Amino acid sequence: MSEAEKKKRGVWMMIFATLFWGFMGISNRYLNEVNFQPIDIAFTRSIIGAILTTIFLLITNRSAFKVTFKGFMFCALYGIINYSIGISLYSLSVERIPIGVATVLMFSNPIWVTLLNYIFFKEKISFKKMIVILTCIFGCMCIIDIFSTGGQNLDLIGITAGVLDGVTFALQIVMPRFVEKTISKDSILLYGFWSSAICLIFFADIPRLASGIINSPNPLFYFGNVLSIGVLSTFVANTFYVNSTKYIGTSLPSMMVALEPTFATVLAFFIFGESMKPIQILGTLIVIGSVMALELNFEKIMNRLKGGSFAQ
């Protein structure tokens, strides 16, 4: 496979990954109609992700099943924080605030990655990163429209859930750094999903969820949304993201994640008629631009342009 073909494959993987992530809020909102609560959706995504990841790794990487007890406990903590809590926070935010706003708040996660890396790994925050972080915070303030309303119209629970979801999303990247030499990412995903599903099964009322779908006006439609949020938005999207790095490295996928809030906002507009005020649109562009600026290595890009290739 030529370098151009590899790049094309990797780019298409990321486009589909971000598109499937963009559908999360849509499926989430539809499942709310049949009384799926945030914890119920988190359980649904976790159990489907766990089952499909198990099948996938049985075929592709059976060594991922071998971990020490200490390693398993770390994976369990990872799953509970990032999937049990993180997915629940996203579902709660989507339930209470516009999908586009919730998605952009989640997308601010690279900013939290920078801060957490400074706290835990003593990575220096450059002047450029500090400017980007401050700009992103300003963008988030525009998104929640705090300037024109004075904060009076804010759904504090929804906004807080969205911000905390961005933190847990960042922890998905930061936490594996503590064990990168001893536990594979496949093992973390595998046991993380299962730990999350086992934790949440005590809170999710499965008979009630099944009854809600079966007794709904259109059971196949709502079951399709269960599959969409579990298969496409969880398992397939994450798999595409991980595998895209084999073809286009890590920098370009990190930047292409900026497509996610765009897809989510456009889908929410066409399906639910949700719209954003001009100041919220400006805030969205500021956040996306800030994160892209954080991920860009301008010196490396110029070298690649001179060399005629973006492949790593």
TrEMBL record:
What single Pfam family name could you report for this chain, choosing any that match? EamA
EamA domain sequence ranges: 9-143, 157-292
Gene3D superfamilies per UniProt: 1.10.3730.20
Concerning InterPro entries, the annotation shows: EamA_dom, EmrE-like
Which keywords annotate this record? Membrane, Transmembrane, Transmembrane helix
Q: TM segments?
A: 12-30, 42-59, 71-91, 97-119, 131-150, 156-176, 188-210, 222-242, 254-273, 279-298
Name the GO cellular-component terms. membrane
Q: Which domain of life is it from?
A: Bacteria
- Family assignment? Belongs to the EamA transporter family.
Q: What is this protein called?
A: Membrane protein
